[in-house]
C-alpha cells in the first residue's frame, strides 16, 4: 500500500515513524507548507516525492491513501479533496472545527464508500484499550473519569517548540480526545457543560477551560484544560470504576496507587499512533469500517458544537 502524508511537522513525523513498522506499506509522497524543510524530512525517511501542493500528490497513480496531519482549519476540506480524488483518508484529530464541516466529510464518505478515519488516538493507546476490553467484557463500569489536559503554550508553538502557522484550540482539538474517549468507554453522552477563562489578546482563544460530561449510563467526566500550566505536560486520565481505579498516561497504565500495569500484550505495539495507522491500513485492505471512522466519531463533534454554543451564549 502506497501512502501520501500531508503535514510534515511534529505529528507527521510520529506517523512516519509508525508507518515504517507496518509490513507492505510505503510512504511515496510528502506534502508540506515549505518545500525545503519538507524535502529534508522526505530525505530523512527515504520518501521519493516532496511537494507543497496536496493536489500534486493526489494526482499520482501510485497513491492509494492519504494521512492528513495539516492544520485543523484545513482538515475537512482536504479530507473531502482526498475522497474526491478516489483516495482513502485518515484525518488527524480534530476532524473539523465546526459541526457543519464534520457532517460534510461524513456525507462525502457515504457518497464514495472510501475509508475515512479520524485520528482519535485514545481509542488505540494500549492503556485505554485494556480498560475498554474489560468494560466490554463486563468486568468494569466507570463511575467517573477525571481528566487533565495541560500544556504551556502562551505563544503559538508546536510540540517541537517551533512556531506554528495556525492557532490550536482547547475545545475543538484537545477536548475532542476526551469527549470521544468518554463516550467510547462509558456510552453516549446525554449532558454537557463548559466554562472558559479569559481570551488571549493575541491568539484569540481561551487559554483555560472546564468541561463536565454525563453519559447515558450515569457515569460522569470532569475535564480540565489549560495552555497556561507550567508543569507536567500532556493528558492524564483517572478512571474511577466500580472495580478499581486506574491512571492512564498515553500508552501506559497504572493502578490508583501508582502501581504500573503491564499492557505490552494488549496489542502488537506499545505505540498508539502506530496502532492507529495499522487500523487504517487494515480497514482498507479488508474493505471494512475502521475503529474511529468518521461515522463513529461524529457524535463527539455534535457535543463540541453544543458546548461551543453554550460558551458563545
Describe the structure.
This protein is of the alpha/beta class. It has 9 helices and 14 strands. It has helices at residues 10-19, 35-45, 54-58, 75-84, 99-112, 126-136, 170-186, 272-286, 294-312; strands at residues 2-6, 26-31, 50-51, 65-68, 88-92, 116-119, 142-150, 189-196, 208-215, 220-226, 234-241, 244-249, 252-255, 260-261. The longest helix is centred in the last third of the chain and has 19 residues, at 294-312.
Describe the structure using short key phrases:
six-stranded parallel β-sheet, single chain, eight-stranded mixed β-sheet, 313 residues, alpha/beta
Multimerization status: single chain
Largest sheet: 8 strands, mixed
Number of alpha- plus pi-helical segments: 9
* Helical/strand content category: alpha/beta
User: How do the strands of the widest beta sheet line up side by side?
Assistant: 8-9-10-7-11-12-13-14
Calculate the mean pLDDT score and round it: 95
Give the termini separation: 47 Å
Q: Runs with pLDDT <50, length 5+?
A: none
Indicate the overall shape.
Answer: globular
- What are the secondary-structure elements, in order, as H or E? EHEHEHEHEHEHEHEEEEEEEHH
Specify the helix fraction band: 25-40%
In angstroms, what is the radius of gyration?
A: 19 Å
Tell me the β content.
Answer: 15-25%
How many strands appear in the DSSP assignment? 14
Write a short abstract of this structure.
By secondary structure, this protein is of the alpha/beta class.
Amino acid at each position: 500500500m502506497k501512502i501520501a502524508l500531508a503535514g510534515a511537522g511534529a505529528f507527521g513525523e510520529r506517523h512516519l515513524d509508525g508507518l515504517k513498522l507496518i509490513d507492505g506499506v510505503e510512504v511515496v509522497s510528502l506534502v508540506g507548507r515549505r518545500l525545503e524543510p519538507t524535502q529534508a524530512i522526505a530525505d530523512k525517511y527515504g520518501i521519493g516525492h516532496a511537494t507543497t501542493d496536496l493536489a500534486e500528490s493526489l494526482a499520482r497513480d501510485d497513491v492509494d491513501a492519504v494521512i492528513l496531519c495539516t492544520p485543523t482549519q484545513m482538515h475537512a476540506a482536504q479530507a473531502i479533496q482526498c475522497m474526491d480524488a478516489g483516495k482513502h483518508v485518515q484525518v488527524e484529530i480534530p476532524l473539523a472545527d465546526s459541526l457543519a464541516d464534520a457532517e460534510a466529510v461524513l456525507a462525502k464518505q457515504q457518497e464514495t464508500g472510501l475509508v475515512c478515519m479520524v485520528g482519535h488516538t485514545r481509542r488505540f493507546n494500549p492503556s485505554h484499550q485494556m480498560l475498554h476490553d474489560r468494560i466490554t467484557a463486563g468486568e468494569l463500569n466507570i463511575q467517573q473519569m477525571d481528566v487533565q489536559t495541560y500544556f504551556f503554550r502562551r505563544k503559538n508553538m508546536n510540540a517541537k517548540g517551533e512556531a506554528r502557522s495556525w492557532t490550536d484550540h482547547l475545545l475543538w482539538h484537545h477536548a475532542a480526545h476526551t469527549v470521544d474517549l468518554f463516550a467510547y468507554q462509558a456510552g453516549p453522552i446525554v449532558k454537557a457543560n463548559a466554562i472558559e477563562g479569559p481570551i488571549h489578546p493575541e491568539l484569540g482563544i481561551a487559554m483555560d477551560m472546564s468541561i463536565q460530561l454525563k453519559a447515558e449510563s450515569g457515569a460522569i467526566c470532569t475535564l480540565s484544560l489549560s495552555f497556561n500550566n507550567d508543569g507536567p505536560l500532556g493528558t492524564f486520565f483517572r478512571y474511577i470504576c466500580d472495580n478499581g481505579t486506574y491512571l492512564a498516561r498515553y500508552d501506559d497504565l497504572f493502578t490508583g496507587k501508582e502501581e504500573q500495569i503491564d499492557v505490552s500484550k494488549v496489542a502488537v505495539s506499545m505505540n498508539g499512533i502506530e496502532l492507529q495507522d495499522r487500523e487504517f491500513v487494515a480497514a482498507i485492505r479488508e474493505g471494512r469500517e475502521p475503529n474511529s471512522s468518521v461515522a463513529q466519531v461524529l457524535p463527539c463533534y455534535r457535543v463540541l458544537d453544543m458546548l461551543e454554543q453554550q460558551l458563545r451564549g
